[in-house]
Each structure stands twice: as structure tokens, then as C-alpha cells.
């Protein structure tokens, strides 16, 4: 009779890909450019000579920048037109659309906009094809972003957008409390909060994304790395109950216990926490850089205009580490005209598009050069810090069963932060679950 | 099972009946029957094999695994908190939700049926909760139940609605009841409108008070329609998905069986997803079957007792009349007889 | 003219525009059991409660749609300033929202017409005809409403995209690919509902008509259907709204903007960033898809039901 975890254990879940020199069977998979990857089903070998009209499936862009890109491309490529297929706004819905179409082997989508955490799953299932590195501007991209697009040393996507979190501080309040610089560590931050909230009981301390969703995985991955650990080591083995992991999680738990982090932060996603900070209800906020424009809004919606300083996220010990987010472009294994698709994603990665996207949408792009760009530096004074955050960023586990893994991480972290379980118990339980998931 | 009682106007109706039902049955076979069979088969398979240790690629193809997926469904960690958490949530949302909806919906229908004026506006407004797409209304409730949202502002107390616990379940129930009570209200109202007013006249002449009239006349007469309305609400509530999904996301407190199926499908574990779907299907079948057996006799036309004249399927004569005194029971009988008389 | 249908003449329009006649042909007046003034007060309070119950959360949706997009989470009871920006954003040409509304109308309207047609046939057979296996058929029909839609979607996508050899059509991006699966959950509801409504009407009415020489169909069409009008109409509303609200099937079967329905279009609204749920535009879209629906229902309620009832008199 099956054991209770039979269904999960039947398939080896985790494949260590990407993280530096990949570990599992690394000898056998030297970075070859040929795309026949030996899978028995799904994507046959890709034909990058085939050309013609393609589609591009991604979430909607309300800024109109993407439309400009496509118009320009279509003007120059009248026989290889790209049609935009807009997907739902929700990332989960986008992913399930991709997967449903892959299951049906439909050629409706050619180029797919993939969240960085989907790479392993899409590659392992051969829903997307391996990409030739020499035909793409990979060397112009921040290495951390290329890593998110790599699986078993092979490139399956082209980095397009990236992201790193930053710490936003109320410099006016810090100044009143006698601090000139934003805190570099959690300890410092908690100390400042202690002081500021002693003077003003109407304000809360630190806010981040602690609701039970993907954002919580990002938070935990970041603090664990900052504490010197990793949820998965380089061999792909879970290390969730390491001392570093415990220190990282306990640091956040302390924040909740001592009310440096308000209880309502358990309901915070990006926007909830952004709103609380913007309404003047928080001293510190860890969030993605998009919030900065909102804080600086002129229309009266922001109570913190010109009162915000930006720095690296606080460190547990060592350096403050954010989790890398972003979007990569991949080519569906069931699509036609992959040659055009390859050219198109190279076009999207070109310097001109990379700069225009960042400048006009406020979403950081993957090309190294944009972080040296004067126009961008002028618009985003914290550009260097952001680059730093991305360079040092933690990459979420690159596993095929990411859905199971991230869920286990969220369960553990949420249980501990909401006070239902203690750090040690939460993490040893997590370790057990991750081991189950990765074991053969 | 043929209707034992004569509703027959002419003989030889079987062929005609099936002819009339054929389009319905063919359509349902195509869009539900076929996927269902496929799902049933899939629940016995496991898609995808092991990961190749050298390329990281999953071997494709389905393998037959017998009942493994079912074992996994009952014992596994299903979306975090496991099967039984979702089972009890589903049951709670269904039982509590549908009960309150029914009481509210019937009350609304009774009020609207009695009202003389401005029913147009009220009738329009009763459609509002039901007409707002669930995906939008779930977002609306997200705003309302925000930690710093209007609900907390009105009650002057910060309830963290979207954190684990009873409050999250309450939030789902409130949002669901709000949306669906009008549905029961609408159907009940339509049922009330097809009741002959002379029944009420008779009741009034008989000196029955309103409570009596409701329990002994109105409710039995409107019962077939109400039973169908509640039945379909049950089916819907047991499959509840988007509301807790949008409102609570991953919280255990809101996990339903449908969410387990979708979660497993989202993880491309289609065998397990199908197993969850089949289990849910069986559970709903069971509940629906019991419900129809107990309450739905008049709807499927089984209860006609040869002794009753007219062969009308309307409310079984004697239930609901037992709690009253002998006198009121007699009154009720008489009323019912009068009612039938007026319909003949 | 049959006695039954003859007796149906002279109905009086009641509050909601519905004409109701008693089964003996007398004109029905509004319910008489009112219990005097105390009763009217109770009713008035009840009506007020219904209004508040239904409209209070909707009010929140409406005011949320009238805020500046940057004030999406505000808890001001009245937006300040009142802004139509969200509505303008909904009809941004990129959203194809007007087209999406039209598509929703086609899908929901088509579903309603087909469901009512098939449902009436089926319900009539179940309510009025004697045949073997009736209970089984009824249970089979309702059982199709018991399967999670999520599980139906992938096989149907495969089917409609030509994934099975025995199915020769590629229906992706077509109305029928949305219509037929939507009917799968609307049809059982309609069959059962109509069955219940038909059963509420005494069979003697048709018998009388048929004795007079009317065909079975004629008796049904001219007598039962008009008398069951409130039920048929309510079933139509419920079917229409259920189809109008359908999301998952429409999302899966269509990938061209020109074919998407309003709900799918709404799901594609984005805020100013990927993390930003665009509450304002979604609430505005919610108002836009809800209000016309209500008006439509009100208009239909007066016209159609009136027409049906009048038609039965001829």
C-alpha cells in the first residue's frame, strides 16, 4: 500500500538548477548551445529558422510602452508580425493559462512572459524550449537575472524585467528621534522604532509583505540569506532548520512579539503595506521600488512626500538581502515560427527597449547598462542602491514543484509570525516537508 | 420509474418525452459527461514521471497508479492544511451559508409579495448583489474587510478579517450570503406569484393567523420551487471557489474542496486534482440525493398518493401540520382542501 | 376558445408588471392578508431592510469607483473629489470594453435563449409526461451541476481546440465554445426550475383545453407557459445572470481581445504596477456591467411578461 506521501515522493521534485555551478549531475550538462535537450515528450527540438507571424502572451501594460515596442517591431517586420495576447492581471491566472495551453499542446502563444519562479517547472516539463545563448544579449544582463532564467545550466528564458526590494524610511521621524541615517540592520531598526513609537503611539513600526502569499516566501528567503543561510543549499538539499534560518525567522517573529511590526502586517501584501506607509502609519516599509513614485505623488494622495529615504533592506546580520523578482521571456515548445520569436525576445532585451521600459513604467529592467543611465539616475535617485539590492539578491528556490515548496514555506512562516507555532518547530516542520518534497 | 399516478392526457408518452429531453441530454453528455469520464480515468493516473538527473527534464506520459491519488487526497497535505480542513470548511460554508440564505431569501420574498408600493425599486435592488460578477464582488469585499477598511472603521474595532481564524470564515460567509440570499428570494417570489390568492382568502375567512397561513399554506405551496432553489444553492455552495480564493488567498480558514482540486491542478498534479474532483462530486451527489429524497418528492413527482384527488403534486398533505393543536390541524386540512378546490 | 384560456383574460397588472390570474379565471388582486396598519409598518420596515441590505455594499463599490485612482483604498464615505477617471480608464480603447460588453451580451443572451428553449422542452417532459426512468434522468441532469468547473475546463479546451480525432471542429475564439459549456451549468438549473414551476400548475387546465381539441403543444404553449410566466421569467433572469457572470470558461476558450467577454476584460485591467490591484477601475467596471443589467431586467419585466400574458388571451 502506498505510504501517505507516495504521491509526492513518486517524482523527484527538486532539481537543483541555476544556483551558481549547478550541482546535480553537472558534469553531463555542460552549456551546449544546441537545443535538443533529450526530453521524451513535450518540446521537440526547436527550429529557430522558421519565421512568420507570432503571438506574445503577457499581462496587460497600461502605460502603452509595450504597444510602442510592438508597433516599431511590426513596422520593420511586415512578414513576422507580433500580435499581443493580453493575459489576466493575476500571475496565477497567467500561469494557468500557459499551462492549460501547454496541456492542450496549443500553438496560441508563441512568446510567454514567465515569472522568474516558473522557469524550472516550464523547463522541466519542456513547455518552453532551450534558447541559444549566443543569439541573445545575455551578457548585457545582470548575472542574478540570468540565473533566474537558467535551469540545469541551460538557458530557457531571456531576462527582461527584474526587481529588488528596498527599505523606505520616514527620514523626518528619524531626524526627530536623532538619527541621520536609515538603519542597516533589524536591530538598529527596532531600536529606532522603540524610540519613535515611544513619542508617538499613533504610528506603527515596520511593514513588509507578511500575508500568506508569495510575498511571504520572498520575505523569508531574504532574511534567511541575510542571516547567512539558504533554504536550499547548492546541492539542492533543504536547509530550512539551519541556525541561520532560525535566526532569520526569529528576527521577524521578535518584531511581531514586541509590536515593532504591527499585527495587521499579517494582512499586508505590496499594496496594503504601501498604503499604510503612504498614509503615515508606518516608520519603515520594505517594498519594491514602484512605491516611490506613489510616495512622491503631487495629487495629495501621499502624506509622506519628500519625507522618504531609500536604502538597502535591513540585515539580520551581514548584509541586507532582498529577493529578486522579475519577468523573463520564453518560447513555447508548441509554437510555430520560433526564429521570429527568438529575434523578437532579443529585440526586447536590447538597450533601447530596456531603458524605455524602466523609464516609462518605473519597473526595473534586467540590462546592466540602464543602472548607469543618466536619465534614469535623475528620475530614480536610489538607482545605485537598487542595483546593489538586485546584485546581492536572494533567488527563490528553483525547483520544479515550486508551487508545493512555496506553499510549505508560507505555511511555516505564517504560522510562526502569527504566533501559532514557535520558530524551531515551524522550521523543523518545514525542513521535513521540503525533504519529503525533494526526496525520491 | 414511471410516475405511478395518472397525469396522463394521452398515452404513449415515453418516446415524446425522450425526444424533448434529447437535446439537453446530448449537450450535457458532451460538455460535462465526457470531461467527467476523462477525469475519472485521470484520477487513476499519474502524469509525468521522474526527473532526469542530468537534464532536469520530467519524463512525459501517464502511468496508471490505481487508487494512489485517492489515498493521497485523503491523507496528503492538500494545499497545506489537508483534506479534512477543506471538507469541514466546505460543509460549514454550505450548511451555515445556505441556511441563513434560505431564511433571508424567503423573508425577502414574503415581504416583497406583500408590498404594494415601490416594488420596482426593491426588485431592482434585490438583483444587485446577485448581478455583480463574483470576481468583482470578491474584490469589493476585500476592500470592505481591509484591516484599515470601512467595515472596521464602522465598528470602531480592528478585526483582521483576512488572517487565519473564525473571522476569515465569517468574512466568506457574509460575502456569500449577501450575494446569494437574493437568488433564493427571487425564485421564492416567483413561486409565491403563482399561488392562487383565493387560497389566502380562504385561509383568512377561516380565521388563520399569519403565522398559521405561512406554515400551513404558503410554505407547502411554494415548496417545490423553494426546494429547487435551495438544491442548486447547495450544489453551488459546495463547489464554492472564487470567493474565498480572491478574498483569503491561501489561508487555511477559507480552503474548500474545489480549491484543493484547483490547487492540485495548478501544481499540474492532474491525477490528484481529478481525485479531489471525484471525491467532491461523490460528496455533492450524496448530499443532493439525500436532500431530494427528504424534501424533493414534489419536485420529482414521486409522492403522488393515489388516494389524493387531482393527482396534484403539491405539498404532501400532512407534514408540517403535526405540531399544532388538533383544532389548528383540522383548520389546516380544511384550508388545503379549499385551496385545492379553488384550483380545480 | 377554451375555457381555461378564456378565463385567463382580464388579468390586471400588479405591482411588478406581472399579470396574475387565478386558476378559476378571476382576476387576482394583491394579497389581502395584511393585518392593517401594524402589518404595513412591518412590510415597510422589511422593504427598507431589503434596500439597505442589497445596496449598502453596492454603495461601497460605487463610491470606490468614483475616487481618484490613487485613492483606491480610501474610506471616505463620499469621494473627495468625485472623479470619473476610473470610468474613462475602463473604456480606454486598449481594453476593448465596449466590444467585451457586446460579447457578454451575445454569450449570456444566447445561453439564455437556448437554455430556455431546451429547458422548457425538458421540463415539460418531466412535469407532464409519463415515461420510464424519469427520476434517473432528473438526477442525471442535476448531477451535471455537481462537478467542479475547474476540472471541466482542461478537457474542454483540448476538445474544442481539436485535440481529439473524433471532434472535427476548432472552436477556440468562438461564441459556441463559451456558450455550450456555460449551458452546462445553466441548463440543469433551468430544467429543474421550470419543472417545479410547471408542476405548480394543475394539469386540469391542459386537460380542459385538450378536450376542446387543442393539441398538447397548443395547450402547453397557450395555457401553461403564460401562467408560469413569473417562473419562466425568473428562470430567464437567473440564467442570464449566471451566464453573464461566467469567467473561467470564457477566459480559457478565448485568446483574442475581440472575442473576450466583459469579465475576462475586467480580469485584464492592471493598476499602475504589477502589484497594484486596480480596485477603482474594477469597481467601475462592476458598476458598468451591473447597472444596465438591472435596467434591462426592469424593462423586460414590464414588457415581456405583459406581452406573454396578453398573448395567451388571444
TrEMBL record, chain A:
Key words, A-Z: Signal, Transport
InterPro entries, sorted: SBP, TAT_signal
N-terminal signal peptide: none
Gene3D superfamilies, sorted: Periplasmic binding protein-like II (3.40.190.10)
Pfam families xref list: SBP_bac_1
Residue numbers spanned by region Disordered: 29-55
SUPFAM superfamilies in the record: Periplasmic binding protein-like II
Recorded family membership: Belongs to the bacterial solute-binding protein 1 family.
PANTHER family: MALTOSE-BINDING PERIPLASMIC PROTEIN (PTHR30061), MALTOSE_MALTODEXTRIN-BINDING PERIPLASMIC PROTEIN (PTHR30061:SF50)
Protein name: ABC transporter substrate-binding protein
TrEMBL record, chain C:
Protein name (database record): Carbohydrate ABC transporter permease
Entry coiled-coil feature ranges: none
UniProt keyword annotations, A-Z: Cell membrane, Membrane, Transmembrane, Transmembrane helix, Transport
Signal peptide (residue range): none
Chain positions covered by the region annotation Disordered: 1-21
Membrane topology: Multi-pass membrane protein
Family membership: Belongs to the binding-protein-dependent transport system permease family.
Domain of life of the source: Bacteria
Lineage: Bacteria, Bacillati, Actinomycetota, Actinomycetes, Micrococcales
Subcellular localization: Cell membrane
Amino acid at each position: 500500500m502506498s505510504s501517505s506521501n507516495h504521491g509526492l515522493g513518486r517524482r523527484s521534485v527538486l532539481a537543483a538548477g541555476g544556483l551558481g555551478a549547478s550541482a546535480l549531475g553537472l558534469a553531463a550538462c555542460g552549456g551546449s548551445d544546441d537545443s535538443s535537450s533529450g526530453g521524451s515528450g513535450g518540446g521537440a527540438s526547436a527550429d529557430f529558422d522558421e519565421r512568420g507571424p507570432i503571438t506574445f502572451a503577457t499581462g496587460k501594460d497600461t502605460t502603452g510602452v509595450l504597444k510602442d515596442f510592438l508597433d516599431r517591431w511590426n513596422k520593420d517586420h511586415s512578414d513576422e508580425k507580433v500580435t499581443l495576447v493580453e493575459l489576466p492581471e493575476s500571475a496565477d491566472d497567467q500561469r494557468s493559462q500557459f499551462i492549460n495551453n501547454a496541456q492542450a499542446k496549443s500553438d496560441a502563444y508563441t512568446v510567454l512572459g514567465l515569472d522568474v519562479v516558473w522557469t524550472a517547472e516550464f523547463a522541466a516539463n519542456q513547455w518552453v524550449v532551450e534558447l541559444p545563448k549566443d543569439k541573445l544579449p545575455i551578457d548585457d544582463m545582470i548575472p542574478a537575472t540570468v540565473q533566474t532564467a537558467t535551469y540545469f545550466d541551460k538557458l530557457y528564458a531571456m531576462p527582461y524585467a527584474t526587481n529588488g526590494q528596498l527599505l523606505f524610511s520616514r527620514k523626518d521621524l528619524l531626524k526627530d528621534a536623532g538619527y541621520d541615517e536609515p538603519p542597516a540592520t533589524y536591530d538598529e531598526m527596532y531600536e529606532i522604532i522603540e524610540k519613535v513609537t515611544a513619542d508617538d503611539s499613533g504610528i506603527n513600526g515596520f511593514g513588509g509583505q507578511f500575508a500568506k502569499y508569495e510575498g511571504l516566501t520572498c520575505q523569508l528567503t531574504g532574511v534567511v540569506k541575510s542571516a547567512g543561510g539558504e533554504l536550499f543549499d547548492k546541492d539542492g538539499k533543504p536547509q530550512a532548520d539551519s541556525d541561520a534560518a532560525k535566526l532569520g525567522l526569529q528576527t521577524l517573529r521578535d518584531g511581531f512579539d514586541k509590536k515593532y511590526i504591527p499585527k495587521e502586517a499579517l494582512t499586508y501584501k505590496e499594496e496594503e503595506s504601501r498604503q499604510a506607509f503612504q498614509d503615515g502609519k508606518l516608520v519603515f516599509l520594505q517594498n519594491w521600488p514602484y512605491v516611490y513614485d506613489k510616495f512622491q505623488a503631487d495629487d495629495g494622495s501621499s502624506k509622506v512626500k519628500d519625507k522618504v529615504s531609500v536604502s538597502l533592506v535591513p540585515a539580520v546580520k551581514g548584509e541586507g538581502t532582498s529577493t529578486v523578482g522579475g519577468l523573463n521571456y520564453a518560447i513555447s515548445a508548441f509554437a510555430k515560427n520560433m526564429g521570429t520569436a527568438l529575434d523578437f525576445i532579443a529585440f526586447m532585451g536590447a538597450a533601447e527597449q530596456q531603458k524605455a521600459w524602466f523609464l516609462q513604467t518605473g519597473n526595473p529592467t534586467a540590462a546592466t547598462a540602464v543602472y548607469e543611465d543618466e536619465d534614469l539616475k535623475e528620475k530614480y535617485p536610489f538607482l545605485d542602491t537598487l542595483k546593489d539590492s538586485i546584485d546581492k539578491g536572494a533567488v527563490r528556490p528553483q525547483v520544479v514543484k515550486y508551487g508545493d515548496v512555496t506553499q510549505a514555506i508560507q505555511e511555516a512562516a505564517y504560522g510562526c509570525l502569527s504566533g501559532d507555532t514557535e520558530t524551531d518547530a515551524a522550521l523543523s516542520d518545514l525542513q521535513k516537508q521540503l525533504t519529503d518534497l525533494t526526496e525520491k | 420509474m414511471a410516475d405511478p399516478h395518472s397525469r396522463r392526457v394521452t398515452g404513449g408518452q415515453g418516446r415524446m418525452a425522450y425526444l424533448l429531453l434529447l437535446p439537453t441530454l446530448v449537450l450535457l453528455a458532451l460538455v460535462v459527461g465526457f470531461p467527467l469520464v476523462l477525469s475519472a480515468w485521470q484520477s487513476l493516473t499519474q502524469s509525468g514521471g521522474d526527473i532526469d538527473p542530468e537534464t532536469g527534464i520530467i519524463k512525459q506520459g501517464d502511468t496508471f497508479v490505481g487508487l494512489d491519488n485517492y489515498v493521497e487526497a485523503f491523507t496528503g497535505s492538500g494545499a497545506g492544511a489537508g483534506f479534512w480542513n477543506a471538507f469541514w470548511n466546505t460543509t460549514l460554508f454550505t450548511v451555515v451559508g445556505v441556511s441563513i440564505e434560505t431564511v433571508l431569501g424567503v423573508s425577502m420574498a414574503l415581504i416583497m409579495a406583500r408590498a404594494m408600493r415601490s416594488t420596482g425599486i426593491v426588485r431592482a435592488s434585490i438583483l444587485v448583489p446577485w448581478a455583480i460578477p463574483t470576481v468583482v464582488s470578491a474584490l469589493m469585499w476585500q476592500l470592505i474587510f481591509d484591516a484599515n477598511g470601512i467595515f472596521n472603521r464602522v465598528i470602531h474595532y480592528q478585526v483582521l478579517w483576512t488572517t487565519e481564524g473564525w473571522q476569515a470564515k465569517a468574512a466568506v460567509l457574509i460575502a456569500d450570503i449577501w450575494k446569494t440570499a437574493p437568488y433564493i428570494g427571487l425564485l421564492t417570489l416567483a413561486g409565491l406569484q403563482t399561488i392562487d390568492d383565493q387560497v389566502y382568502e380562504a385561509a383568512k375567512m377561516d380565521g388563520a393567523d399569519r403565522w398559521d397561513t405561512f406554515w400551513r399554506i404558503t410554505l407547502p405551496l411554494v415548496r417545490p420551487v423553494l426546494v429547487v432553489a435551495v438544491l442548486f444553492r447547495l450544489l453551488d455552495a459546495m463547489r464554492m471557489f472564487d470567493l474565498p480564493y480572491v478574498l483569503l488567498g491561501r489561508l487555511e480558514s477559507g480552503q474548500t474542496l474545489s480549491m484543493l482540486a484547483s490547487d492540485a491542478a495548478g501544481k499540474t498534479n492532474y491525477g490528484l486534482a481529478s481525485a479531489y474532483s471525484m471525491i467532491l462530486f461523490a460528496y455533492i451527489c450524496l448530499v443532493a440525493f439525500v436532500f431530494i429524497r427528504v424534501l424533493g418528492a414534489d419536485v420529482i413527482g414521486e409522492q403522488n398518493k393515489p388516494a389524493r384527488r387531482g393527482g396534484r403534486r403539491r405539498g404532501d398533505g400532512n407534514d408540517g401540520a403535526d405540531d399544532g393543536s388538533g383544532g389548528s390541524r383540522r383548520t389546516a386540512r380544511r384550508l388545503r382542501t379549499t385551496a385545492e378546490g379553488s384550483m380545480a | 376558445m377554451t375555457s381555461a384560456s378564456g378565463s385567463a383574460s382580464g388579468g390586471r397588472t400588479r405591482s411588478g408588471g406581472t399579470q396574475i390570474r387565478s386558476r378559476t379565471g378571476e382576476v387576482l388582486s394583491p394579497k389581502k392578508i395584511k393585518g392593517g396598519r401594524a402589518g404595513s409598518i412591518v412590510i415597510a420596515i422589511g422593504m427598507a431592510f431589503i434596500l439597505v441590505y442589497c445596496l449598502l455594499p453596492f454603495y461601497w463599490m460605487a463610491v470606490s469607483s468614483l475616487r481618484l485612482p490613487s485613492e483606491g483604498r480610501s474610506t471616505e464615505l463620499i469621494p473627495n473629489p468625485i472623479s470619473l477617471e476610473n470610468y474613462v480608464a475602463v473604456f480606454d480603447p486598449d481594453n476593448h470594453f465596449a466590444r467585451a460588453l457586446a460579447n457578454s451580451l451575445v454569450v449570456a443572451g444566447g445561453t439564455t435563449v437556448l437554455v430556455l428553449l431546451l429547458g422548457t422542452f425538458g421540463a415539460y417532459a418531466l412535469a407532464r409526461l409519463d415515461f420510464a426512468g424519469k427520476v434517473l434522468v432528473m438526477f442525471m441532469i442535476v448531477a451535471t451541476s455537481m462537478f467542479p468547473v475547474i476540472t471541466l475546463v482542461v478537457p474542454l479546451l483540448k476538445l474544442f481546440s481539436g485535440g481529439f480525432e473524433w471532434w472535427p471542429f476548432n472552436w477556440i475564439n468562438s461564441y459556441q465554445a463559451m456558450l455550450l459549456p456555460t449551458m452546462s451549468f445553466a441548463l440543469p438549473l433551468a430544467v429543474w426550475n421550470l419543472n417545479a414551476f410547471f408542476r405548480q400548475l394543475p394539469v386540469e387546465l391542459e386537460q380542459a383545453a385538450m378536450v376542446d381539441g387543442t393539441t398538447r403543444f397548443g395547450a402547453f404553449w397557450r395555457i401553461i407557459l403564460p401562467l408560469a410566466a413569473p417562473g419562466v421569467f425568473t428562470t430567464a433572469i437567473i440564467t442570464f445572470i449566471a451566464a453573464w457572470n461566467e469567467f473561467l470558461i470564457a477566459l480559457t476558450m478565448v485568446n483574442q481581445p475581440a472575442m473576450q467577454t466583459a469579465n475576462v476584460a475586467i480580469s485584464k485591467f492592471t493598476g499602475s504596477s504589477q502589484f497594484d490591484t486596480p480596485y477603482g477601475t474594477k469597481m467601475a467596471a462592476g458598476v458598468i456591467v451591473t447597472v444596465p443589467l438591472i435596467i434591462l431586467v426592469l424593462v423586460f419585466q414590464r414588457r415581456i411578461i405583459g406581452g406573454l400574458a396578453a398573448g395567451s388571451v388571444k
